[in-house]
Write a structure and sequence with these properties.
single chain; about 200 residues; Rossmann fold; eight-stranded mixed beta sheet; UCP030820
Length: about 200
């Protein structure tokens, strides 16, 4: 199978083949914008590994418990959904994805940070949607470790975005201490810090 036909993602700083499919709720054909999407409770879940929208998980979670335990079901959060809504189920999921509907929508960064820092999620955290090379370095800082980049872009070029910078100043999920705390400070003979009078 050619690379163009494979479903590729970036995971753990490598381009790998992905066996997960993302399920999205679609509008009925011919429906006006703003109309209701498919009914989450009645949506058929395909076989194989599937990443479900949060409303589908909320409507069908009990019936899918066996598939979750088998590692076949994951969930994705939209940028306007709160990660706290799945806090009781987080330990069940090997993978949680966060959707970026537009590359300019930064709410997914906060969702990822909260999943890692406040809710203690330790599984795979994947960015999906409008994911571009320029975002990857910042995404890894808040806890993402897998990226489904836009299919119209070169994924191998996007991979380089994870190493755009050699050092960071601020603390985040990937580096708990800011740079000034990680660097040795000069101390005067009297014990005061150089620059303390500034």
């Amino acid at each position: 199978m050619s690379e163009a036909k494979k479903n590729l993602i970036i995971k753990q700083r490598s381009v790998v083949e992905d066996d997960w499919q993302v399920l999205r709720l679609e509008l009925a054909e011919g429906a006006a914008e703003g109309a209701e999407a498919q009914d989450p409770a009645g949506l058929a879940i395909p076989a194989g590994k599937v990443i479900l929208p949060l409303p589908v998980w909320q409507a069908q979670g009990a019936a899918l418990a066996g598939r979750v335990a088998a590692g076949e079901i994951a969930v994705w959060l939209a940028s306007d959904e709160r990660p706290e809504s799945i806090k009781d189920d987080l330990a069940k999921f090997a993978l949680v994805a966060v959707d970026f509907p537009k590359f300019t929508d930064g709410r997914g960064y906060s969702i990822a940070y909260n999943l890692r820092s406040r809710l203690g999620y330790a599984g795979e955290l994947r960015a999906i949607g409008d994911v571009l090379r320029d975002q990857l370095f910042s995404m890894q800082r808040v806890g993402f470790d897998a990226y489904a980049t836009r299919p119209d872009r070169d994924i191998h070029e996007a991979l380089k975005g994870l190493s755009d910078f050699s050092e960071t100043y601020q603390a985040s999920v990937d580096q708990k201490q800011p740079l000034f705390r990680r660097q040795p400070r000069d101390v005067r003979p009297d014990g005061s810090d150089v620059g303390s009078g500034i």
